[in-house]
């Protein structure tokens, strides 16, 4: 029965991304009626689930932290392409689209994904255990990148408004790339052990669960090289389908937001939620398998990649895109970002967390979503 289930899983996760890309190719650039929008949304959901499956296959083969890095970078690269494409399309909100999307990604990863993972891990073992050195270093990178690229533009004086001057934007882009490169080097080479999963039984307080690290994907042997390359290719196809189909349904979301009288920034939040669904599901599944460090690798790694790759790409694209590039956050979002940084530091430093920390992060995430709809 288990073999049959695994075979069915491999079958549908193989053809769903391909079908989704075909639907994307047929529907691209056309006005979609209601039934077709439903079909595109179904393809979007199927592609998300397929992406999670293939990311786990790759992660099982290459091990941590490379597995979480693959998914984080793949999603972010395609997300950057989506942002640039939407900015090139013009419109009233082009100048703030990059800022809104990057900030939404930070709040989703640092509060939504982290909070949900901690909640799942704590419900399973009473105490979720992770490596404070690795998670703390990643959080420091996230906080620095977010402050340099989303906070400083609000207070600089070289250019009117919450906008960097050309030289300042170039410095922020280079600094972001350098910090991202340092993080990847430390995570994958110099201090790789800081980002390895910590079994619940290693809880120094002795209050963790029995620990089930070793369940799940360890039940069967690692995939072959051929299966790994196949899953890597299908992962990229699935991610293209996720971002592309999210773009197709975005006009319907925009019309719904406009008709409901909601702020236009809500569109960026909804799109970011859709794009980050693969990482969210992968992080939650890792937490269920007592791999809390993998969940945090996915969350903080995605936030770092989202800023560290998006800002340089947008800075380069701004050379040929018309209009200002507004990166500075308003007062409301500055408060949410500061509170997220403080709470995240208090969560990460002990190396252990309970339902309390997970609940706090989820309330912060709920506040961000609520205030996006009702600022």
TrEMBL record:
PANTHER family (UniProt xref): SODIUM-POTASSIUM/PROTON ANTIPORTER CHAA (PTHR37958), SODIUM-POTASSIUM_PROTON ANTIPORTER CHAA (PTHR37958:SF1)
Ranges for domain Sodium/calcium exchanger membrane region: 37-188, 231-373
A Pfam family that the UniProt record links to this protein: Na_Ca_ex
Region (Disordered): 203-222
Transmembrane domains' residue ranges: 12-30, 36-54, 66-90, 102-123, 135-156, 162-183, 229-248, 260-277, 298-321, 327-348, 355-373
The keyword Transmembrane appears for this protein: yes
Location, primary (coarse class): membrane
Keywords: Membrane, Transmembrane, Transmembrane helix
Biased composition (Gly residues): 205-214
Subcellular location: Membrane
Coiled coil: none
Keyword match Transmembrane helix: yes
Record protein name field: Ionic transporter y4hA
Highest taxon in the source lineage: Bacteria
Its membrane topology: Multi-pass membrane protein
């Amino acid at each position: 029965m288990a073999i049959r289930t695994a075979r069915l899983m491999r079958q549908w996760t193989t053809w769903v991304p391909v079908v989704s890309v075909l639907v994307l190719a047929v529907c691209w650039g056309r006005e979609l009626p209601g039934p077709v929008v439903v079909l595109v949304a179904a393809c979007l959901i199927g592609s998300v689930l397929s992406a999670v499956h293939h990311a786990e296959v790759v992660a099982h083969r290459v091990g941590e932290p490379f597995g979480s890095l693959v998914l984080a970078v793949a999603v972010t690269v395609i997300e950057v392409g989506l942002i640039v494409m939407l900015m090139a399309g013009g419109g009233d909100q082009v100048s703030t689209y990059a800022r809104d999307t990057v900030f939404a990604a930070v709040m989703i990863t640092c509060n939504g994904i982290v909070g949900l993972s901690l909640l799942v891990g704590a419900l399973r073992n009473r105490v979720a255990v992770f490596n404070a050195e690795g998670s703390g270093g990643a959080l420091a990178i996230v906080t620095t990148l977010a402050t340099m690229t989303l906070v400083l533009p609000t207070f600089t004086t070289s250019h009117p408004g919450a906008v960097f001057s050309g030289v300042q934007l170039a410095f922020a882009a280079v600094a972001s790339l350098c910090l991202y490169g340092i993080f990847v080097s430390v995570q994958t080479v110099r201090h790789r052990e800081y980002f390895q999963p910590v079994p619940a039984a290693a809880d120094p307080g002795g209050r963790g669960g029995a620990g089930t690290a070793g369940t799940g994907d360890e039940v069967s042997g690692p995939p072959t090289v051929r299966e790994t390359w196949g899953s890597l290719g299908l992962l990229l196809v699935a991610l293209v389908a996720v971002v592309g189909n999210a773009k197709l349904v975005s006009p319907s979301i925009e019309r719904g937001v406009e008709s409901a009288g909601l702020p236009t920034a809500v569109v960026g939040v909804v799109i970011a939620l859709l794009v980050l669904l693969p990482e969210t599901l992968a992080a939650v599944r890792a937490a269920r398998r007592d791999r809390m460090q993998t969940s945090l690798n996915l969350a903080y790694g995605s936030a770092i990649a989202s800023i560290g790759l998006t800002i340089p790409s947008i800075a380069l694209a701004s050379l040929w895109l018309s209009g200002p590039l507004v990166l500075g956050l308003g007062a409301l979002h500055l408060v949410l970002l500061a509170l997220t940084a403080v709470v995240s530091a208090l969560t990460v430093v002990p190396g252990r967390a309970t339902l309390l920390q997970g609940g706090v992060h989820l309330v912060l995430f709920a506040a961000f979503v609520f205030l996006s709809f009702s600022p």
